Amino acid sequence: MNLHSTTYLVFLFIFFLFNENISGQYQVSTRPDIRHITQADGLDDQAVYKCLRDSLGYIWLAHRKGLNRYDGHSMESFPLSKKKRGQTKIIQMVLFNDHLILLEGLPGFHMVSAKHIYFLCPYSSQSIDVFDPIGGAPPFDIEEVEWIDTDDEGHLLFLVADESLWHLDQQFKWTQIIAPGDIPNAYFNPNRNHIFTSNQIVLSDFNHTSFLILNTATSQNFELKADDVGQWYVFPDRDSIKVFRRIKGETQHAIYLVQNDSLELITEEWTQDISSFFNYSYSGEYHRPQTLLLTPNKGLGRYANSQYDIILPAIDVPFNEYEFNSAFSYDKDKLWLCTTKGLFIVSIQSTPFRRWLHQEKVPIPRLSDQMRSLYTADDSILYAGQWVDFTILNLKTGSTERYNLPNKDVIYSLYPLGDSILIGSDGLYLFDKNGLIKRLANIPANSVWDILQVNTEDFVLCTNKCLFLYNRKNNTLRKLENSCTKTDINIYYKAILENDTIWIAGDAGVIALDRSYNLISQISKNQLETKNILTFHKEGPVFWLGTYNNGLLKWNYKTDKLQIYTVASGLPSDDIFTILQDDEGYLWLGTSNGLAKFDPSTEDISVFSEEDGLPFTEFNRISAFKSQNGIMYFGGLNGFIQFNPKLVETPFDTTSAPFRITKINQYDVKTDQWRSLPQPLPNELQILPGDRIFEVELALLDFESGPYQYQYQIKGLENAWYPVRNNVIRINNLPYGQYNLLIKAQNPKGLVADTTIELPIHVKTPFYMSSLFFIIVFLALIIIILLIVKWRERNIMMENIKLEQEVARKTKALTLALKTKEVLLKELKHRTQNNLSIMESMLELQKDKSSTAEAIEVLDKTQNRLRSISLIHHNLDMSESVNQVHFNNFIRDIIQQFQSILQSNIIQFDLKFSSSLTYVLMEKAVPIALIINEMITNSFKHGAIPGKTLNIAIDIADIDDDTLRILYRDDGNGPPGENKKDSENQLGMKLINLLCKQIKGQLKEDYSQGVSYEITLRRKTIAT
Fold this sequence. Notes:
17% of the residues lie in helices and 41% in strands. The protein is an alpha+beta fold.
């Protein structure tokens, strides 16, 4: 609670309790909002005994049939121990070390103990009925506990039926505070007015006729008993204990302070008939216990820190003192009332806006309640122009004095003049210190909107026609003609004096006058892009202009730069009636739809409305004033407000209330049912492949009245945010994989939760789609393949064995056949050679019988040819191959054949064999042998010169990898005749040409120097 609110509460305390004659001119807070929670809202029973909030933000309600947890949207039931739901009455509940300590009561409506204690962990929702989780068995019989409570430090205390009091601290250490027999038994009872602090224990009897205070520090007791006509109500107040003494039948009561084991009278001024006192604690702040007071004529009030404020007016209190059980609060703006009629949640809006001259519960504001003008010198006496009433209000006491102008003319403006007040209406009036009203001047206008004192004598009057100048000394009035229009209609609303310049604004724009009232400059409304100006504030060359229907204008008259701020900029309205600047430089704007705070440096706008404590949202033009102390006053259609701008908190855009996932439900496909996940909820949601439908229930735990808004995003799937109509998010059939569910919340007041829930979700991949499955399948395939390979290898091996056996068999047969073939070939070769030898012998015999040289020559040539063929067969017989002969060897054999026949001095052979060709086919070797045989024969026959040796050169070489050249040359005379080529007609040359074609060779002849034959042929035609 801030200082300003504290001041208000102090005043309210004095106002309500000490001065009943003052009418209700001022309220600290707005009319509270009351929510009634009953069985229709899910509460198991309407007889609620206790309420508290755990560290997660949930509200727990102990009632006649057990326990409920409330999240603002739904109620959860929690059965205790082995008993069924609705069979356990809980009359007391405290929070100790994050455990709920519950005390069972007897059946019925009364708070009577049944001497049984339960312990509940709110995070796991597990109920147990032993002390083991919090430090072991106690040193007393647990079945004899009459009452449990906590002190202001959070320690646990037990009232036991043997009249002892035990203390359990946060370290689980037991201490006996009161031994059996030390105090009367009357104080040991379930009493909501027992008070436990760190150094004092206050025990009251059930009827409030006596109480006992024990000082644990000094071990001293103080007991006080009431007389026959009184009752004592003891209540905590910050660090002290106070006692309210109620005397039956009297109208005055007293409050005492317990100090030094005695009572010190504070006041006897209480005039309220207090029905009941109810002590309650402030959650999380044990040093701030508070007390509720129920009064028949005022209602339900709250007393704390020596201050008193009304929470519920008497007309709004929904229960009586016999139906009230306890109260709970975790902030200053919300109170939870536990009654036998259910739970009442009272939202209290404390506001810094102090209401004056405001009429409550008026559906349509009356003209008499309108504020036209305000003025105060010292924030104690305020002068108000209230339609036709001139009101003097004492801001300290709230007392008022009302006056009327003659003929009850409407009041528009006020201006201080020493101890008197100038009043602007249809004329100019003076209200003096004696309370007399005097008319100073008649003004030919309907209204005087503003009064500006230029010097000690002159006053400029802004009217709805033109400007007037009133001279106080001469009591004269004259028009300032340069301000009048031709139509004689021009409204001027406000004027200020800056140095030697008078600035005046109205519906025609802004004008400037000098001290002599001459027109210096004039800015028309068209230049300012507005219809008319209702008010303005000036800072150097910058004007802040409030307009009708055109928003707020920022105009620099030196640079003629204009900026416009409207509803689109964040203003609550485009009608700006009043502008005041506070001591920190912020502009406060009274509009037709609320109060706005404008930051000129950042252009940020904060808007205040009835939800923030304003009694109205429509303010009046000109009706605003700032005092020398910085206090601001804004008038509207129903009274006016007073506030210190330094104490007005800017409305938050966010709320720090806990934001929780309250429940996660999953749909089980196998059972066709929804199931809730147990508490505590998992940090990651695991979704089985067949259960891809789930619900997430949410709660923003600020417990405001009205609809909440939630939205979510599935990060990892898409970036869009989806709104939720209620507090349940249902998601169907997410693809397999990892996601993050992001959730945001907004309360009914529009405040966004400052935390975003992030729930990791793992939609498990089916086994048949998992990596393990693929690994297993892969391994299985490998095994199958290996088995198949092994099986194939075995089959192949068996086939190979069979094949090898068949090959061996066929090889044996082929070997035999080959041997037979070799024998046959050898026999064939042998017979061929024999036949060739026989033919040669026959030719030899024939030659002996021939008588002509020509016949003998033919027979010799034929013999040589047969020898060449025989040599080839000889070489073939010597070769390992059956169809190839050694090329070099059989060529040399042909030459040796001729050398053996001819004398060496007749023919000299030169053989050069540089070819890489080793073997030639037999069918190609025979033509080559015959070609060489014919060439040598022709050289010997035609080229030999008697007495001279014939040189024959044979060069066999490779031209390239594919071409073979056979070059034959001799140095003889060559064939006979002039034309050597005629020798081609001879039989030998014809045979050479035919044999060359047979081996696909090309023959070139040259007879220029002896004889030269060049045969080129492809290697592949004669060799494999």
